[in-house]
Write a structure and sequence with these properties.
Strand content: 15-25%
Mean pLDDT: 83
CATH class of the largest domain: Alpha Beta
Number of domains: 4
CATH topology of the largest domain: Calcium-transporting ATPase, cytoplasmic domain N
Low-confidence stretches: none
CATH superfamily of the largest domain: Calcium-transporting ATPase, cytoplasmic domain N
Structural class: alpha+beta
Number of helices: 21
CATH architecture of the largest domain: 3-Layer(aba) Sandwich
Radius of gyration: 32 Å
Shape: elongated
Helix content: 40-55%
C-alpha cells in the first residue's frame, strides 16, 4: 500500500495528508478534486448506437459476404446482391438492439447504486455524493453504511466491517485506529477500511487515503479492464472464414485453368468462378448464428442474467471448468448457528439462512426444545448478547439482518426457540454491557433477573474457558475439573474440524456490582458452545450435480482454512475422496502448461 499508511499513527497520517481533525476547507477540496479527480472507478467508454451497429460487421465472414455482394452487384445480379445485403443489415440490427439494451441496463444500474458520504469539512458534518471525496477528507462512519473510499481509521467504537466484497470472507473484521507492523497484505490491515465494503456494527472516523482507481477495488478493476480475451466463437468464425477463402481460391484456380485448357473464353470462366464462389459462401450463417444467440440471451434474461454481447452466450456454453467463489455464491453469506453443545449434549439446528424457523434435533431425532432447559438457557443467552436486528423484506421475500452477523446468528437461533429480545428485556431489564472488544475477545451483558444481576458472556472459546472456574450442569454450578476442561477443548477442536466457527458462552447468575469491568469478569460458569457457519444455498448441491453431469468440472475458490473449506465442499458435492487442494502460493509457482497438464484432481483452491 502506498506510503504504508497502516504503519503510521493517526496524527502522522493527518499531517502527511495536510489535513486536520476539523477536516478540509472548501478551497482545499476544490484544489484536490482537480488534482485527484472524482472518486469513482474508471468507466469504460460508452459506445453510441452507430458504433455498436458498425461493430456488428467486425467479422471475417461478414467481410466475405460484403465482398460477395459487391461482386454480385457488379455482375448485374441486383436481386441476389440485395438479398445478401438485407441479411447483413438484419443481422446487424438484431445485434445492435441486444447490445444497446444491455448497455443501457448497466448504465441504469450504476446510477441506482450511487451512494452518499458523511464528511467533516470546515469543522461541520455534511452529506455529499461519494464521488466528491478527496484524500484528506475526514469520514464519519456509521453502522449500516458503505465505505465510500479507502481510508485510515482514526477513531473506532467497536467498528466492524464486512469485507466479503473484497476478500470473500463472510466474518466481519474488527477495525482499530492503532498502528500495525509492516509486512501484512492488503485485506489484513485492521486500521484500514476499503471502498465498497460495509459497516455492520459500531461507528468511528477515518481519513481518506485513496480515491477512484487508486483504491484497492479500483486497482482490481483496472487490471480486469486490461484483460482482453477472445470469445471462442469469434476465433472459430475467423478460422472458418480462412478455410472458406482457401477452398474457394483452390477450386477457382483449378476450374479456371481447366476451362482455359479446353478453350473456354476468359470472360466466361471468370463469370463461372465468381458465381461458384458466391454460391459456396454460406450467406445465411450469420443470421442463423445471431438468431440462435439472441434466443439464448432471451432465455438467460428470464433467469435474471444480463448478457452484454451476444457471442458471450456461446462462450459460456464452451466452459469445461467453472471456478466459483464460496462466499455469496455457494453460500448465502448468512452466518447461522448449526450446532449447540450444552450440558454434554450436541444439538443440531436446522433452518434456511436468517429465517427464524427451524427444527432442533438430538442424536438424529427431532426434539421439543421446551423439554430441554439447558437448550433454552443457550437460547436465552443468545438473546441477551445479540444487539443485531432481523427483518423480513416483503418485496424480495427475504429475511435480512442489521448489525453484527455473529450476533444476528445468535438472535435467529434464539427466535427458533421462541425467544424475542423485546419480551426478554422487558422481563429482565438491561443493567450494563461491555461490547465485544478485539483485545478482550468477548461480549458481556448484565441483566436483572429476580433482583439479581445475571451476567452472560459470549466470546472466543479459549478466553471463556480461561475465565470459567465452574461448569453449569443440571441447573447448578459444578467444579470444572482439569479432565472436564480437556474434554471441552476436545469438543471445541472437533466442532472446528467440521468447518464451524465456534463461540463459547458462560454465565454468572449472581454477579456483584452493576458496572462491568474486565477485572471483575472472573469465576464464570461455563455453559456451552455455539457452532456457526455461513449457510450453503439450498440449490447449490443440485446445481453442482447438474454441471458435473453435463461434463463441467466445478472448482471452489475460498480464503478459508483447509479444514473449513473441505467440510463445505464435501457437503455440497464438490469434494470427493482422493481430490486435492491447491493454495495460492502453489498456483503462483506453476506455469499455465503445468496447471493444464496436471493429472491430479483439484476441487477447491485456497486464496
Amino acid at each position: 500500500m502506498n506510503n504504508l499508511w497502516h504503519t503510521k499513527s493517526s496524527t502522522a497520517v493527518i499531517e502527511e495528508l495536510h489535513s486536520s481533525e476539523r477536516g478540509l476547507n472548501s478551497q482545499e477540496v476544490t484544489l484536490r478534486l482537480k488534482q485527484y479527480g472524482l472518486n469513482k472507478l474508471p468507466d469504460a467508454k460508452v459506445d453510441g448506437i452507430f458504433t455498436i451497429f458498425l461493430r456488428q460487421f467486425q467479422s471475417p465472414l461478414i467481410y466475405i459476404l460484403v465482398a460477395a455482394s459487391i461482386i454480385v452487384f457488379a455482375m448485374g445480379e441486383v436481386v441476389d446482391g440485395s438479398i445478401i445485403l438485407a441479411i447483413l443489415l438484419f443481422n446487424a440490427i438484431v445485434g445492435t438492439i441486444q447490445e444497446g439494451k444491455a448497455q443501457n441496463t448497466l448504465l441504469a444500474l450504476k446510477k441506482f447504486v450511487e451512494t452518499k458520504a458523511t464528511v467533516l469539512r470546515d469543522g461541520k458534518e455534511i452529506i455529499i455524493s461519494d464521488t466528491e471525496l478527496v484524500p484528506g477528507d475526514i469520514l464519519i462512519l456509521q453502522e449500516g453504511e458503505r465505505i465510500p473510499a479507502d481510508s485510515r481509521v482514526i477513531l473506532s467504537h467497536n467498528l466492524k466491517v464486512d469485507e466479503a466484497a473484497l476478500t470473500g470472507e463472510s466474518e466481519p473484521i474488527h477495525k482499530t485506529s492503532e498502528r500495525q507492523a509492516a509486512g501484512e497484505t492488503v485485506g489484513q490491515y485492521k486500521n484500514i477500511v476499503y471502498k465498497g465494503t460495509n459497516i455492520v456494527a459500531g461507528n468511528g472516523r477515518a481519513l481518506v487515503i485513496a480515491t477512484g482507481s487508486q483504491t484497492a477495488i479500483g486497482t482490481i478493476a483496472s487490471k480486469i479492464a486490461s484483460v482482453n480475451t477472445e470469445i471462442p466463437l469469434k476465433g472459430n468464425i475467423r478460422y472458418l472464414s480462412r478455410f472458406i477463402i482457401a477452398i474457394v481460391a483452390i477450386i477457382s484456380v483449378v476450374i479456371f485453368i481447366l476451362g482455359i485448357a479446353v478453350g473456354k473464353p476468359v470472360k466466361d470462366m471468370f463469370t463461372t468462378i465468381v458465381s461458384l464462389s458466391v454460391s459456396i459462401i454460406p450467406e445465411g450463417l450469420p443470421i442463423v448464428v445471431t438468431l440462435i444467440l439472441a434466443m439464448g440471451v432471451w432465455r438467460m434474461s428470464k433467469r435474471n442474467a444480463l448478457v452484454k454481447k451476444l457471442q458471450a452466450v456461446e462462450a459460456l456454453g464452451q466452459a469445461s471448468i467453472i471456478a466459483v467463489d464460496k462466499t455469496g455464491t455457494i453460500t448465502k453469506n448468512e452466518l447461522v448457528i448449526q450446532k449447540v453443545y450444552v450440558a454434554e449434549k450436541m444439538f443440531d439446528v436446522e433452518g434456511i439462512g436468517y429465517e427464524p424457523k427451524g427444527k432442533i434435533s438430538l442424536d438424529g431425532r427431532i426434539i421439543d426444545a421446551a423439554n430441554y432447559p439447558e437448550l433454552l438457557l443457550a437460547g436465552k443467552i443468545g438473546t441477551f448478547c445479540a444487539n443485531a436486528r432481523i427483518m423480513y423484506g416483503k418485496e424480495d421475500k427475504r429475511w435480512r439482518v442489521s448489525g453484527d452477523p455473529t450476533e444476528a446468528a445468535m438472535l435467529v437461533f434464539s427466535q427458533k426457540l421462541g425467544f424475542h429480545k423485546e419480551d426478554i428485556e422487558r422481563e429482565s431489564p438491561l443493567v450494563g454491557e461491555s461490547p465485544f472488544d478485539y483485545r478482550l475477545k468477548y461480549h458481556a451483558v448484565l441483566h436483572n433477573i429476580e433482583n439479581k444481576n445475571f451476567l452472560t458472556v459470549v466470546g472466543a472459546p479459549e478466553v471463556i474457558l480461561k475465565l470459567s472456574e465452574t461448569i453449569w450442569l443440571d441447573g447448578k454450578r459444578k467444579e470444572l475439573t482439569p479432565a472436564e476442561r480437556k474434554n471441552l477443548e476436545s469438543i471445541f477442536y472437533q466442532m472446528s474440524q467440521e468447518g464451524l466457527r465456534v463461540l463459547a458462552f458462560a454465565i454468572n447468575p449472581d454477579a456483584a456490582g452493576k458496572i462491568l469491568k474486565p477485572e471483575k469478569i472472573r469465576g464464570l460458569s461455563f455453559v456451552g458452545f455455539y457452532g456457526m457457519r455461513d449457510a450453503t444455498r439450498p440449490e447449490a448441491a443440485s446445481a453442482i450435480k447438474k454441471a458435473e453431469s453435463a461434463g463441467v468440472k466445478v472448482v471452489m475458490i475460498t480464503g478459508d482454512h483447509k479444514i473449513t473449506a473441505q467440510a463445505i465442499a464435501k457437503e455440497i458435492g464438490i469434494w470427493h475422496e482422493g481430490d486435492e487442494v491447491l493454495t495460492g502460493s502453489e498456483i503462483d509457482g506453476m506455469s499455465d502448461a503445468e496447471l493444464s497438464n496436471d493429472s491430479r484432481v483439484y476441487r477447491f483452491l485456497l486464496e
